[in-house]
Each structure stands twice: as structure tokens, then as C-alpha cells.
Amino acid sequence: xxxxxxxxxxxxxxxxxxxxxxxxxxxxxxxxxxxxxxxxxxxxxxxxxxxxxxxxxxxxxxxxxxxxxxxxxxxxxxxxxxxxxxxxxxxxxxxxxxxxxxxxxxxxxxxxxxxxxx
Amino acid sequence: xxxxxxxxxxxxxxxxxxxxxxxxxxxxxxxxxxxxxxxxxxxxxxxxxxxxxxxxxxxxxxxxxxxxxxxxxxxxxxxxxxxxxxxxxxxxxxxxxxxxxxxxxxxxxxxxxxxxxx
Lengths: 118, 118
What we know:
The structure holds two protein chains of two kinds. By secondary structure, chain A is mostly beta strands.
């Protein structure tokens, strides 16, 4: 079975500083994808960044980077130069590899609430 | 990026009535749509997966007779909460993706529908 664990229910960070949100996962699949989504108070889920299990380099998207440590099964999100607008709930998610006939599901961790302080 | 819309964005209904929520992919054909449920301050829980033209696959513990899902076209899926009760009050989010599973197939989320059953 697949599982995503986010151990930080909440985090504070000062504006302009960097913050790391933790995510560990468990899967028996050889091929899988890891995602981070942002959910502001409005409720919409905003895709931030993706890391494939076979990607050798850590994914980066602007101020977001994913610290992928495959052996440790961790996929931490790093947000650099935090902004007030980054205050939101952040979810780590995983989708397993293709199995013939199966529809791959995106499963989510419990989320980390990030509060950026001025 | 791709856009997924949901209608209505919020709905209040009386206990015992049925409520239909629509999910549309606006600029791509969604071969697979997902319905999630999110209770306050909790993660997204997958309810069901639907492929266009076929019956939905429900997650364990989700009553298929209560949560009717219809994926009649490549751009529209509907979730009907039948005989709604206060415990069905939640934030319902649909998600859509195109193509086959696996890899960096991005899953786009709708803005969510907040259902309150009185």
C-alpha cells in the first residue's frame, strides 16, 4: 500500500527566509511520481512541482525546489525567499506506477499549514 | 494551465434532499476524473475514480448508491449526493487528467464545492 506522511502540522517562517516542508512516502512501486500542491484559504488546489522516481536531478520551479532523497523515501519541498502570499496549506502527494488495467490514484498526505510572518 | 470548473461553488440544502455537483474540464479532454472529499483541516480523501463512458470505481467505505457519479463525456463528470444528511457536509473537489496514468501526467483540480446540509 502507498502512504504519504507529513509530520509537520504547522510551520512559521519569516518573510524572505527559506522553509522546508517535510514529506516521506512508502511504496512498493518502482516507478512513481511525487507532487506538491498548495491550498490557500480559498480551497483551490494549486500544483507546484513534480518529481519522477527516475529523475536524477531534483525538480525546481521558480522559488520551489524538491529535495528528493530516494533511499530515504523523502521528498521535501523547499520554498526560498518566502512571501506573505505563500501562507497556505501544503500537501505532498504520490501517484504509483502504471499497472496494466489499473487507474493510478493520487494520494495525499495530511498537509502542513505554513504561515509566513512579516 | 488547464482549467477545471465546478458548479456550484457552494450549496446549502435540507436533510434528505439530493444535490448534484458538476465538474468540467474547460480546455482539455479528461479521460479520467476523480472526486475527493475534504473535511475541515484534513487532507483530501479520494472517493471515486471515473473514466469516460464507464462506471466509476469507488474507494473502500464510500457508498456508491449514495454518491452517484456520472462521467458522460470527456469534459463533464457529475457527483450526486443522494438523500444528503448533515454528516455529508464537506468540501468536495473534483480533479481531471488526460491521457494514460503514470509519469508527469498532471492532475488539475477544480475550485471545490462546499456542501452544507442542514
